[in-house]
């Protein structure tokens, strides 16, 4: 983000924002070459760096661990489509004792989660744990008993940063990091996070936000009481995958599983 962009963002916000330029941080260092055999070479190494950053590293950054309780993740492709909220999302999370919230759910491609389900179950066995009720309901196919590939779209992710530093969560993230699957097989941060949320959080600690219209690349959803969304002109040609109530497909096991705000 350039200095001009920082200034423009600052001028549009009611409160003074805080910017932290990660490329100058000693905490993060990304190389454009890694000594790992990669099976999905059609994806640039930068994509794997991004997944590693959002999936594993972010909660340990000093700004997240020492300054803020909750954080909201948005991508450069993220757009909020309205309406304007009349409440503070962070206050809503804290008052209702929520740990994690999201807007949309999706089905990942099987080729992008190679080995992840096996790693997850090996981790549970090694840790003397069994799959949670949420894992059985949302991550396990009712037809095959295998991985359902259902994921939470975490390109919009509002959560308590400390939950990722909880010992069981941290152990899972360390196991993923040690496996090098993000770089070997192109694992995304979404399935890694989804498995963690469904295994380690209570059902009443998670909420699906339904009063925010949102788009990411070609996918979009509208606030539950507004359709069609007020889509900015520069996005109208690119939004072609509508997710009713934030769900795709409509039989996604996450649809109607977690509580929804109204």
From TrEMBL:
Alphabetical UniProt keywords: Transferase
InterPro entries associated with the record: Glyco_trans_15 (IPR002685), Nucleotide-diphossugar_trans (IPR029044)
GO biological process terms held by the UniProt record: cell wall mannoprotein biosynthetic process; protein N-linked glycosylation
A cellular component term, taken from the record's GO annotations: membrane
Residues forming coiled coils: none
Keyword Transmembrane helix: no
GO molecular function per UniProt: alpha-1,2-mannosyltransferase activity
Family: Belongs to the glycosyltransferase 15 family.
Name of the protein in its database record: Uncharacterized protein
Protein's organism: Rotaria socialis
